[in-house]
Write a structure and sequence with these properties.
Blueprint: H1 10-18, H2 26-36, E1 41-44, H3 51-66, E2 77-80, H4 84-97, E3 105-108, H5 115-123, E4 127-130, H6 132-140, E5 151-154, H7 157-162, H8 166-174, E6 181-186, H9 191-200, E7 206-209, E8 220-226, H10 232-242, E9 249-252, H11 256-268, E10 273-276, H12 282-293, E11 299-302, E12 317-320, H13 327-334, E13 344-350, H14 355-365, H15 388-394, H16 400-405, E14 434-435, E15 438-439, H17 442-462
Helix pairs in contact: 2-3, 3-4, 6-8, 13-14
């Protein structure tokens, strides 16, 4: 089958030709005809298999047939996604497909000002691409209404579950009209996602499963390096310096602090790179992603929040600098390479305390990851041993913990402080309080005492 064989409008066919699409992927070939018949669909497919076009093209075709115009604050299509990056990616795809039509779409997400988003929604849009948090916020402000919704798409459902959006999804679903077409996409189907799908989809939905769940794409060549955590940075730097064919590299770190640390190591080696994670502003994240797409930087370091939000053509290598503690996340990470029919390489570093995570990944994927060439370890500098001072500085538990650890070490006696000289006490008469039965004030008492002391001084001089 070719795209030209599909019953799509001539305007959509022109946009498809401009995008150089010729042959549909398996999920597109199965999903587009079913969705054109307005059936509910559950799609299980790995990232990078063409899911966006699989639901975007039939939705646009149905909107063209039904006529355009949703009215102010109303939307006809809602596409819910877990991350800002993924929402922008899907929005770019819709803009590409709808450019010859009068269909309007907009994208809303958190982390930026909501004023432009409110202005776009006030004019009315046909297609709304949103993240759950910002959508609920604008619904509460009565900026957007879902009463006239006709199509609901939930993409990356299992990622929604991982990020804690399950309650927000239920809130959104409760606001939808009962008569609608539902599209449910996920790379994996854990029991919680199966229960959620049952509450959203109609009975007997079309089920499309392109590849076995959680199985990495076969075109990805994998390598494993068991190495101490303190030497991971040196290994990554050495591999990038020795292999210029690593032109577009994506490195995954478990933490935001770890991602920034990797960037500092690579920058010292004059390797162009940038980090993208939750602590970065939206503008900084988009700038880093744009520079990575245009190859202005060679390495993009990301946390798992970006594992499904990065759609960049030509990623040659993916590094798992830290193994994820959720095995399914490993599949989404390495799925950033070997896209659009190309080959890719996934390299994983495993520290001794990550062996259990590695075993869980290999059980899930049913693949024994082969170990790479360890001769490169000879070129790495030996790990630096920490001195007590550096250990105290770098330790998470400072102060009391470090003092307890060094309690048995001999302590140098501190010099005693010299006591300040005591002031010389003068032999003064006590201050009288009364005179002739009358109580004296402070000034009178002071004056009387001075007179008594003067008399005593004069008498001692006469002697």
């Amino acid at each position: 089958m070719k795209f030209s064989d599909l019953p799509l409008d001539e305007k959509l066919q022109r946009a498809i030709a401009d995008a150089n699409y010729t042959t549909p992927t398996p999920i597109q070939e199965q999903a587009i005809p079913a969705l054109l018949e307005r059936k509910d669909l559950m799609g299980i497919a790995q990232t990078g298999t063409g899911k966006t076009a699989a639901f975007a093209l039939p939705i646009l075709q149905n909107l063209l047939q039904d006529g355009i115009g949703s009215g102010a604050k109303n939307v006809r299509v809602l596409i819910l996604l877990p991350t800002r990056e993924l929402a922008i990616q899907v929005s770019d795809c819709f803009e590409m497909y709808e450019k010859y039509t009068r269909i309007s779409s907009t994208c809303i997400f958190g982390g930026v000002s909501d004023l432009p988003q409110k202005r776009a929604l006030s004019r009315g849009v046909d297609i709304l691409i949103a993240t759950p948090g910002r959508l609920l916020d604008l619904i509460q402000q009565r900026v957007v209404s879902l009463k006239k919704l006709e199509y609901f798409v939930l993409d990356e459902a299992d990622r929604m579950l991982d990020m804690g959006f399950i309650h927000d999804i239920r809130k959104v679903v409760a606001l939808l009209p009962p008569k609608r077409q539902n599209l449910f996409f996920s790379a994996t189907m854990p029991p919680e996602i199966t229960k959620l799908a049952a509450t959203i989809l109609k009975a007997n939905p079309v089920r499309i499963e392109v590849t076995p769940q959680s199985t990495p794409i076969e075109r990805i060549r994998q390598e494993l390096y068991r190495i101490d955590k303190r030497r991971k940075g040196a290994l990554l730097k050495e591999m990038l310096l020795e292999h210029p064919e690593m032109k577009k590299v994506l490195v995954f770190s478990r933490t935001k602090h770890g991602a920034d640390k990797i960037v500092r190591v690579l920058e010292k080696a004059k390797i162009t790179c940038a980090a993208i994670h939750g602590n970065k502003s939206q503008n900084r994240r988009q700038e880093a992603l744009g520079n990575f797409k245009t190859e202005q930087i060679r390495v993009l370091v990301a946390t798992d929040i970006a594992a499904r939000g990065i759609d960049v053509d030509g990623v040659t290598h993916v590094f798992n600098y830290d193994l994820p503690d959720v095995p399914e996340t490993f599949v989404h990470r390495i799925g950033r390479t070997a896209r659009a029919g190309k080959d890719g390489v996934a390299i994983s570093f495993c520290a001794p305390d990550e062996e259990q995570d590695l075993q869980a990944i290999q059980r899930l994927t049913r693949i024994q990851i082969p170990e790479g060439d360890t001769s490169i370890f000879e070129k790495l500098p030996p790990p630096q041993t920490e001195t007590p001072e550096s250990e105290a500085r770098n330790s998470r538990f400072r102060g009391k913990k470090f003092a307890q650890k060094n309690a048995n070490k001999p302590q140098q006696a501190k010099p005693k402080k010299q006591e300040a000289p005591q002031p010389v006490q003068k032999n003064l008469q006590p201050m009288p309080k009364t005179q002739n039965g009358k109580r004296l004030g402070s000034r009178a008492r002071r004056r009387l005492r001075e007179e008594q002391n003067q008399k005593k001084f004069n008498a001692s001089n006469e002697r």
